[in-house]
C-alpha cells in the first residue's frame, strides 16, 4: 500500500533552494574574477590552476574558448574580448552575504532540530558508502539500506557543508588578507588561499554534477520530495497495518 | 531514493486505474496540515504512518493508495505553484539587478552593498594589524602593470604639490624633502586586483611621517596631531602630474605604518614605468591604489575621485 512520508522539512527545502541560485551567482561571479588572473599572457600564479605534472598539462583552467562561449568575456566587435572583473567582484561581494547567512542558518538549524543525525556520518557510514558506490556502478546487487540518507549521501552532504565553510574562510583570507593575516598565513599565504578557494569551487561543481545525476537516477518521487517535502512510500501489503 | 517507482506496481495496486472513493477534503487537509506543523523526527514519521493506517482501517488498499496519490497531487500543485513564484522572483530579481541605474559604472544596489562592506571594514580596521613581511630570498622580480598617467615627462620638472594643509597653503616639495624623512624598508606583497601578487622590496618614507611634517588640516582648526587621526580630515587624494590617474585613500590606511612614499624598489631607484621618482606603496590596498609618479597629495574631507572606482570597482579596495 502507498502512504505519504515526510522527508524534508520546510526549513531544509528553503535552505536548499535559496542556496542553489546563490551558489550559482558565486561561481559565476567567481569566474568573472578568476578570468582576470588566468587569461593567457597574464597568468603567473595561473600555472597552478591546471591538471598536469611538470611541463605537461592535460587541462588549463580555462581555455580561451570556454571564456568566450560562456560570456565570461564579451566581444568588443573587432575580434577582441573584454573581461568583467569589476562586475564579478561586485556580485561576489554582494552574494557572499546570502551564501554565508543561508549556510550559517542551515548549520544552526541542523544542530538544533536534531536533523544532523540523518546527515553526519556514523560508524556504519564508510562501509555503507562503499556498498552504495559498488551498487551504483552495478558491481553489487544487494539493495541499498532503506533510510533517509545512505552512507555515500552522508559523506557527500557533510563534505559539502565543510566545503562551504572552507570557501567562506579562504574567501575571507583573500578578501581581507591583512586584517585576518593569521588566517591567510594558516592557509599558506595569499597565493595558496586563492588556490584553495579555486579548488573548492571545482569541488562544488563536481558535487553539483554528481548530485544532479543521482537525483535524475533516483526519479521523480525523490525529487518531488525536495519540493513538497513528502515522498510516496509503497509498503508490502502484509505490513500495512503494523 | 529507495522507494519503489509507481510504474513498478502491479496494475491492481495502481490507484490511478481504480475509481476509489476519495477521502473527505477536511480529513486530507487536516492530515497535511498536522503533518507539516509537527516537528520532524523519526517518531513523527511513525505517528503519521499510524494515523494513515488507522483512518484507512476498513478501506481497501487501493482506496488507500488513491488517498496518498490525491494528497500528493494536492501538495504538489501547491508546492509547484510556489516554485513558479520563486523561480519568477529569482529571475525578476536578477533582471532588476542587472538593469539598475549605474553609479560609476556599477548598478546602484551593488554600490550600496560595497558601501556597507566598506563601513564594516573601516569599523573593524586596526592600524596595529600589519601586512606579513618576507625574507629577502622571497623577493620576486618587478612586474610592471598599468601606465595610465605615465606619459612623456621630464623628471627634472617633478615637484610634489601638497594641498589641504592646516596652513591653508599649497606646499611644493622636492625629492630631498622626502628623503630627509626617516628611511623605511619593507618586503611586502603587492596584490593586483587581477589576482596575481608579487613580493617586492620597497624603500621610502612613511606617509605618516610625511603627514606629520607637512601638517594636514584638522576638522576643528586645531594644530594637527598625527597621533590624533580622529581630528584629521577623512581622506587623502593622490594624482599623477598630468592628472590622468588618481586615487583616494581613507585616512586610516594613509597613516598605517606600512603605507610608504616610495623611491626605491628591489634595491634600485624607481624606474619610470614603476613610478619614478616617487610612488605610493601600501599592502593594505590592491595595486590599483598604489599610485605611481605622485604629482599631488591632497588632504580632503570629501571622498577623492578614484580612477578605477569610476570604472566599476570598489572605492575602498582594502585588505
What does this structure look like?
- The complex is a heterodimer of chains A (242) and B (319).
- Chain A is built from 9 helices and 6 strands.
- In chain A, the strands form 3 sheets. Chain A has a two-stranded antiparallel ribbon. A two-stranded antiparallel ribbon of chain A has the order 2-3. A two-stranded antiparallel ribbon of chain A has the order 4-5.
- In chain A, α1 (10-38) runs antiparallel to α3 and α3 crosses α6.
- The two termini of chain A are 12 Å apart.
- With 242 residues, chain A is mainly alpha-helical.
- Chain B is α+β, with helices and mostly antiparallel strands and 319 residues long.
- Chain B folds into 2 domains: 61-99; 108-145 and 153-311, Sulfite Oxidase, Chain A, domain 2.
- Helices cover 31% and strands 18% of the residues of chain B.
- Chain B has helices at residues 25-37, 42-56, 61-98, 108-124, 175-179, 207-214, 251-254; strands at 102-103, 106-107, 160-163, 171-173, 183-191, 197-206, 235-239, 246-250, 260-265, 268-269, 279-281, 296-300.
- Chain B has a 5-stranded mixed β-sheet with strand order 4-3-12-7-8. In chain B, strands 5, 6, 9, 10 and 11 form a 5-stranded antiparallel β-sheet that branches. Chain B has a two-stranded antiparallel ribbon with strand order 1-2.
- The longest helix of chain B is centred in the first third of the chain and has 38 residues, at 61-98.
- The model of chain B is unreliable at 1-58 (pLDDT under 50).
- Classes of the chains: A mainly alpha (242), B alpha+beta (319).
- Chains A and B meet through β1, α1, α3, α7 and α8 of A and α2, α3, β2 and α4 of B.
Amino acid at each position: 500500500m502507498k502512504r505519504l512520508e515526510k522527508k524534508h522539512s520546510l526549513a531544509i527545502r528553503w535552505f536548499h533552494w535559496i542556496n542553489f541560485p546563490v551558489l550559482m551567482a558565486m561561481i559565476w561571479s567567481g569566474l568573472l574574477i578568476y578570468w582576470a588572473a588566468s587569461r593567457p599572457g597574464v597568468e603567473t600564479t595561473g600555472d597552478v590552476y591546471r591538471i598536469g605534472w611538470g611541463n605537461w598539462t592535460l587541462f588549463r583552467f580555462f581555455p580561451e574558448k570556454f571564456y568566450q562561449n560562456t560570456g565570461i568575456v564579451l566581444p568588443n566587435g573587432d575580434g577582441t574580448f573584454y573581461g568583467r572583473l569589476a562586475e564579478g567582484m561586485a556580485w561576489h561581494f554582494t552574494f557572499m552575504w546570502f551564501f554565508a547567512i543561508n549556510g550559517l542558518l542551515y548549520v544552526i538549524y541542523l544542530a538544533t532540530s536534531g536533523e544532523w543525525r540523518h546527515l553526519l556520518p556514523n560508524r556504519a557510514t564508510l562501509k555503507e558508502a562503499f556498498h552504495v558506490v559498488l551498487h551504483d556502478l552495478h558491481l553489487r546487487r544487494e539493495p541499498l539500506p532503506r533510510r533517509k540518507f545512505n552512507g555515500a549521501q552522508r559523506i557527500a552532504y557533510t563534505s559539502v557543508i565543510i566545503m562551504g565553510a572552507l570557501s567562506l574562510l579562504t574567501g575571507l583570507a583573500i578578501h581581507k588578507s591583512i586584517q585576518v593575516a593569521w588566517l591567510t598565513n594558516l592557509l599558506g599565504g595569499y597565493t595558496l588561499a586563492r588556490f584553495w578557494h579555486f579548488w573548492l569551487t571545482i569541488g562544488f561543481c563536481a558535487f553539483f554534477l554528481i548530485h544532479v545525476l543521482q537525483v535524475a537516477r533516483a526519479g521523480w518521487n525523490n525529487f518531488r520530495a525536495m519540493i513538497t517535502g513528502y515522498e510516496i512510500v509503497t509498503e508490502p501489503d502484509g505490513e500495512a497495518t503494523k | 531514493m529507495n522507494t519503489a517507482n509507481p510504474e513498478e506496481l502491479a496494475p491492481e495496486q495502481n490507484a490511478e486505474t481504480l475509481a476509489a472513493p476519495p477521502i473527505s477534503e477536511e480529513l486530507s487537509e487536516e492530515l497535511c496540515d498536522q503533518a507539516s506543523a509537527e516537528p520532524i523526527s523519526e517518531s513523527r514519521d511513525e505517528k503519521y504512518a499510524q494515523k494513515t493506517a488507522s483512518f484507512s482501517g476498513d478501506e481497501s488498499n487501493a482506496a488507500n493508495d488513491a488517498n496518498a496519490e490525491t494528497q500528493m497531487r494536492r501538495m504538489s500543485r501547491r508546492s509547484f505553484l510556489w516554485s513558479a513564484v520563486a523561480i519568477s522572483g529569482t529571475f525578476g530579481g536578477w533582471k532588476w539587478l542587472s538593469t539598475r541605474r549605474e553609479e560609476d559604472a556599477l548598478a546602484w544596489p551593488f554600490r550600496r552593498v560595497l558601501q556597507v562592506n566598506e563601513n564594516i571594514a573601516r569599523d573593524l580596521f586596526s592600524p596595529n594589524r600589519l601586512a606579513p613581511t618576507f625574507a629577502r630570498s622571497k623577493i620576486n622580480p618587478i612586474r610592471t602593470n598599468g601606465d595610465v598617467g605615465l606619459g612623456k615627462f621630464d623628471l627634472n620638472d617633478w615637484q610634489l604639490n601638497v594641498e589641504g594643509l592646516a596652513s591653508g597653503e599649497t606646499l611644493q616639495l622636492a625629492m630631498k624633502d622626502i628623503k630627509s624623512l626617516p628611511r623605511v624598508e619593507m618586503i611586502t606583497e603587492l596584490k593586483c586586483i587581477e589576482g596575481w601578487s608579487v613580493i617586492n622590496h620597497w624603500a621610502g618614507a612613511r606617509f605618516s611621517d610625511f603627514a606629520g611634517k607637512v601638517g594636514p588640516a584638522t576638522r576643528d582648526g586645531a594644530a594637527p596631531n598625527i597621533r590624533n587621526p580622529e581630528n584629521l580630515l577623512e581622506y587623502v587624494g593622490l594624482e599623477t602630474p598630468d592628472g590622468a590617474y588618481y586615487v583616494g585613500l581613507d585616512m586610516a590606511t594613509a597613516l598605517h605604518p606600512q603605507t610608504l612614499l616610495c623611491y626605491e624598489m628591489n634595491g634600485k631607484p624607481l624606474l619610470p614605468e614603476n613610478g619614478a621618482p616617487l610612488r605610493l606603496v601600501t599592502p593594505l590596498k590592491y595595486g590599483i591604489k598604489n599610485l605611481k609618479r605622485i604629482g599631488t597629495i591632497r588632504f580632503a574631507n570629501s571622498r577623492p575621485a578614484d580612477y578605477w572606482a569610476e570604472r566599476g570597482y570598489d572605492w575602498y579596495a582594502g585588505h
